[in-house]
Amino acid sequence: MSLAADSPVHSSSSDDFAALLDAELDIISDASADIQEVAEEEENIDVEEGDYDLKFDRAKRRKVEPYENVADLPSSSSQGSSPNKDECQHPGVYAGMCMKCGIKMDDESGVAFGYIHKNLRLANDEISRLREKDLKKLLHHKKLYLVLDLDHTLLNSTRLVDLTVEEGHLIDQRGALPDTLKRDLFRLGSMQMMTKLRPFVHTFLKSASSMFEMYIYTMGERPYALEMAKLLDPGDVYFNSRIIAQGDCTQRHQKGLDIVLGQESAVLILDDTEAVWKKHKDNLILMERYHFFASSSKHFGFNCKSLSELRSDESESDGALATVLRVLLRIHSLFFDPGRDDNLLDRDVRQALRTVREEVLMGCKVVFSRVFPTNFQAEQHHLWKIAMQLGATCSMELDSSVTHVISLDAGTDKSRWAVQEKKFLVHPRWIEASNYLWKRQPEENFPVASTVALLDYSLK
Question: Which CATH architecture has domain 361-459?
Fold first, then answer.
């Protein structure tokens, strides 16, 4: 049962619709529930189509009859003393009416949750109530929330007209493609697009669903989001109505957890773009972008052949999704650690995320050499910030406790000191790789050239 398919005209009263919203949370949080049981629940709340008008009219009269004239009716803008317990607090609005008492309301009241039900808006108090209720239920099942971006995180799409000559084999020689590629490559004729699912995505979603209630959240349009959801979740097991698209956002060019029915303290986000989560960076796990098609690589400024042109792909076992799944398992384990003596409701998954992230470069003390632009405040550079987040200590000065010198040029004084003192001398990409792979990378894989590198690297 989904609110996207059920509206007040299918309920026995407006009170039933309020209850239906609660029922939706119960049902979509347990996507593996038996379909027959869900159908039986629907039968219990459904009424004969001809009975609805009469019952809904009676419900409205029960609410209205105590008032002698229109001026006495409560409204969303009423002022005065605090309402008594019998007065409707208007938890939400559907099609211009309070979904509980049925009176006419301002269509702009509350926050829009159109992805759950068209024309549905919920008041802040009701959002808080639903979040608290759902969190308790999820924690009981040892689950948290996971918000997933689509493009470059779970998949990569391109327009058919943007395929290069070297990508022609994806269409002309489809029969000769490896089975793993054929399984995850889709030509969407109605949208004139081709989509490639990221390796390991099916295993990732199946494993993650045992630990998280999952949302899709994309800056793409809703028709595109729904098509991608069908590819990722053809059995409608993982997401149900929890698919948020660009039109659902409350702020232009930004994603926000204000339209996610989950407590921020229990939400993790996987996305390849940090800039769209300005208010929720502490919840974010930044993903390495998946560029399968040439148009994607070109859009982000890469002047090399794409995976599709090379007839290659990410590793199933060591790729980005396999890596982040191990991170999620670790975070989940820390959050639900039975050895902790604090209240489960008081825990914050963001703290668990920080703890796991800080383990990556813990014990490392780094100094940067010729990495930052002249007169640039080092503490504000993204590499300095990443190193700190990964648990490293950053310093401006050399001393015996320094373990790594991060440099673009092996000829600088600090670089030569590192070699002389037998410290690690590594390229800045060592930090970036450790960040994306959530593991300290072998220093020998990131040597520093003896010539001055291009200055534009430090300006990225």
Answer: 3-Layer(aba) Sandwich (3.40)
